[in-house]
Structure prediction request, 1436 residues.
Amino acid sequence: MEVVSQLLQPEPSEGLMSTPLRIAILHGAGYVGGELIRLLLTHPYCTLTAVTSRTFAGQPLWRAHPTLRGQTDLTFVEEAALTLSELDAVLIAAEHGQGARTVQRLLENGYQGLIIDLSADFRFRDAARYPEWFGFDHPAPELLGRFVYGLPEVYAPYAPGTRLLANPGCFATGLALALWPLRHPLRERTVAVTALTGASGSGTRPKATTHFPERDGNVRAYKVLTHQHLPEVQQVVGPYLHIAFVPVSGPWTRGIWGTVHVTLPAGITTRDVSEWYEAAYGEAPFVRLWPDQLPELRYAVHTPFCDLGWVVRHHHLVVGFALDNLLKGAASQAIQNLNLLLGLPQTAGLLPTPAAVDA
Amino acid sequence: MEVVSQLLQPEPSEGLMSTPLRIAILHGAGYVGGELIRLLLTHPYCTLTAVTSRTFAGQPLWRAHPTLRGQTDLTFVEEAALTLSELDAVLIAAEHGQGARTVQRLLENGYQGLIIDLSADFRFRDAARYPEWFGFDHPAPELLGRFVYGLPEVYAPYAPGTRLLANPGCFATGLALALWPLRHPLRERTVAVTALTGASGSGTRPKATTHFPERDGNVRAYKVLTHQHLPEVQQVVGPYLHIAFVPVSGPWTRGIWGTVHVTLPAGITTRDVSEWYEAAYGEAPFVRLWPDQLPELRYAVHTPFCDLGWVVRHHHLVVGFALDNLLKGAASQAIQNLNLLLGLPQTAGLLPTPAAVDA
Amino acid sequence: MEVVSQLLQPEPSEGLMSTPLRIAILHGAGYVGGELIRLLLTHPYCTLTAVTSRTFAGQPLWRAHPTLRGQTDLTFVEEAALTLSELDAVLIAAEHGQGARTVQRLLENGYQGLIIDLSADFRFRDAARYPEWFGFDHPAPELLGRFVYGLPEVYAPYAPGTRLLANPGCFATGLALALWPLRHPLRERTVAVTALTGASGSGTRPKATTHFPERDGNVRAYKVLTHQHLPEVQQVVGPYLHIAFVPVSGPWTRGIWGTVHVTLPAGITTRDVSEWYEAAYGEAPFVRLWPDQLPELRYAVHTPFCDLGWVVRHHHLVVGFALDNLLKGAASQAIQNLNLLLGLPQTAGLLPTPAAVDA
Amino acid sequence: MEVVSQLLQPEPSEGLMSTPLRIAILHGAGYVGGELIRLLLTHPYCTLTAVTSRTFAGQPLWRAHPTLRGQTDLTFVEEAALTLSELDAVLIAAEHGQGARTVQRLLENGYQGLIIDLSADFRFRDAARYPEWFGFDHPAPELLGRFVYGLPEVYAPYAPGTRLLANPGCFATGLALALWPLRHPLRERTVAVTALTGASGSGTRPKATTHFPERDGNVRAYKVLTHQHLPEVQQVVGPYLHIAFVPVSGPWTRGIWGTVHVTLPAGITTRDVSEWYEAAYGEAPFVRLWPDQLPELRYAVHTPFCDLGWVVRHHHLVVGFALDNLLKGAASQAIQNLNLLLGLPQTAGLLPTPAAVDA
Prediction:
């Protein structure tokens, strides 16, 4: 064996990589922001050029995300310090309500690039949904029609020229992917969903339901049959299915795991169900199918996948879904959307690339 | 204030307490055995006189249950060392299959007292269930008809003279209590159950599914739609409900938490559902009702209660149940049954007694 | 076997139990308050007559402590609603600073019974300690001299007539019990302590360090070498040992576990160390000794014990300690002190009583 | 903004990347194997060409590592199926004892490339250590002298031509890095270490100490003052320090966190200590220094870093260390060593590369 000490840093191949795309993350001090930063630091075609945070402006990224210390020298900046004309895309990881105001500011300031908003603020076409489900009037209803709902497995490829995209909610992603293949074959049926989420879904702000002594070893349902991701899912699967959704807090940090129960019409077999899911997701790189079993949460956590599995017995179908709420439920789905909007390989920066040479 | 230094140990009142009942625990080195010991050590009418274990015979109880060190001087004995004629009751905390053989030995040796078996071995009247659901032929089918199924909220008071009682399974207890009030009003409907259990339900023997790195932060379904507690529940609620049951492993040690979904007939309101549950359990000391909400797991753990709650929206009913798998799902329910069979107050040793004098 | 259906509730034996002692818990809505309530509800000589809480006044105890639902019908009251003359003892489970003001109010209102204060406010004889270690001037320095420091294994029996007692801190209890037997043999040596505590030690108020995503799977030191329990321990073991103390947050809810390292003088063996601990605690019902090993946390949790163990190798001694921060570190130690001050058996309500009759 | 839909996969730049290095992982079905696979799948200069496992031969990698499903199409092979002449390096993730036999086989079969052994089998120069500390005679003592001990921050750069490297143990890595800068300034002193590790350190095989109900919420010391990593650390820091080491199991899956206590000579300040650590690790990309505080475990987990921090008060120094036992304690350190032996940038595949173009 010869030691290849002459090897150097790989240089970008001519042309393509001479201008990596320039990305900024707005409101990047939360958990989703941290994942977006991590993913963009190793993205092969993108450069993270700025991250904003009012609280941490002027401080290194690792003050909010100590894990990143030693991995980047970037510091947080104020939003006003961005040079918008130099950005190809911005990802907004704000809380609900803040997303819309941030988009407004960007557009008012003449920003021309892509916007991927990870808040709930542009997920609905109908402004009336906001007071009903979120308790506030939408600050920018005139923008709702300009946003695309970014569930790639259902809506991609996006129309050429799409600039504004609303990234789906975490529960909504799992639920919509689990239900989408069922909407026609099980039309008019009731699907009964119980789904549990980890504490990182609640954000970085401490509250009673994420207080360790209250969460540890505990299981707690909330917003039973009234969760705000319900209309989001209903918007995807249309009026075909009646969805009863029980969201639940579980004693872990990352990941969503749920079951869907539905009665099958006579004559439907496991094979039929498998065909429905294969037809819907056979080519989708971020949906993994587990026929005849329900997926385990652990295998989806820290990955960009949504795992789907199903079991049929007599006339009953159970579908299971599992995903990382911060990744396929937020950050990696945003990167997947970014890749799609930029014309990059959908998996860039999210999955290993086959080695260039592998005889 | 006068310091009451003259106070002594309370002496038993005349007559009643001069002969506390003598209880033995068989196969008492597991988790359920530990809880039975703990409960009997403070039971006001019972004395724990012996605990058997082949593995630990000759060693103090605290070798298997270090928590108990300093709380009792008992040592484990071999089953053969018991003086059966001196025992008022035995509680058998054996694994499935071992329970039946232990009962056989006791009866063959002329034991005349009560037997409460916590294994699955006498929960079914029909011996055919054992090969189908447990994978072995029942070793003592002739005894099946002599056992009473001990779900007190449904079957108590037990017939006078009842000596042999099969304590229900942990999942079965929660599920049967949740479904029992629905069996008539929702006759012929499908109830869709997803229920999660902690790792102590798997017993003390390490295995892959309880290996910490595999269980921590994980959720995993198993025996989907085919769990052995299903026929047990079906035996309770009869043919009226079609039960689809997904049992799930959760990342905690103690407690079962589940949801039941069912479509309601037109016109049924929350008030109706509340009446069904009130009628069934209004007087039951170990069932706590939480109308218009689902119970939290944490509040049931380390208690002898099964918590039941429900939410109705449109035509959909969700019922939630929560219990400690080692207590209401095993040990405290066995003590409750013991109390009932002995004619003691049902809550003796399980709930605080109102103070004797409280002006 | 004859079913003893004629058995009734045990009646108190004549004289002694005709007047159970009347106890109130002040500021009883926190975690320690919950444990005090639970312990007093089954105390054989005491009746819990009132629990105060400003937040929960007028609501049943189970609003703050849902686990207690079905176990007591008491409701929280305002402190002003107490009839002080009817109380034999009050236990104060207030936050630091509030304890002193509560004691002041009680004494000003002519309260004549026992007071056990679980806050830090009366643990030091020297008022100067408060600004230095707690950041505030003591509100009632004149009372400091009247309080006894209630570490029973060191200071009991208390002087006859003792009415005011300061219950030790949780870390301080474990550390003081571990160090007390070493103070003379290892005089002038440095003892190096690293001790970890669960999240319930931080109280019920959510904060960043108890936010589930931050605590789960994490270990974090705080107040390194400067924790406020340090002077408390130093006050017990005197000037004999130099204590270096690193307190640490661990990812669990209940329990303190720590190690003490110290270099031994030549010639000291395990046997010597065992003798020191046996001499100090051989008769103490709530200290369990584990020679030649360090105790496991799990066995102390949910018990009123402090476990101590030790290992000697060459010239090095490691002592381990484990206790439940809410019990021996707070509530059960308060009951132990209550028993001692009232002249009751020290273990009443905390350990199983040997059965009255056990032939 | 112009959508760059013409972007293609990056092609390797001429010459350098046309022949990625070919790497195999032996015994790759365990936790460390899973991390090695994950890291090599995205390594910019290396191609993972084979992973062996007797148990899983013929099955896809994701059977042992379900997380990897959808990320690689490799299947496990038998060791005998390897074409050794085509491999540039092998990484051995075997259990102790198996590592040596695997190395023997490779060398007997004429393998000429690099070997990085992650077992304990070649960490000591002195064969006598094996019966003493591991309980077995070394199967290949003649090879001990040919291996380099691969703690890069202490021993790199390795001698040109180094082919055989023993990767350090997980506890040993943290402890040696924490102690190395102290060995001269604190010569002859005793350092008292208490360090806790997660359950993944015990490997994939279930056992009593990793049984979830026993590990959850528990802390347990083991091999107190006698752990087999102790001589490994002593070999690094030489005879200068006396190490007392208490290894502890903690209730989490990944990560090691520990404290070192040592008495300082008069006159030593925080600044002095900081200078010692800066001098030792100022340039080390995988050691992060946290002066005046102890590191938090959480920030090191899922990273290739070892975090070191320290606090001085009076004459006492506490040093804290934190690392991911599967990464800097095993897999990422192996890749770091691989990079060093291959003449690659030390951080290749482990840290984000600065973007090629970032105006």
Remarks:
- The first helix of chain D runs from residue 31 to 41.
- DSSP finds eleven helices and 14 strands in chain D.
- The radius of gyration of chain D is 21 Å.
- Confidence is low (pLDDT under 50) at residues 1-17, 355-359 of chain D.
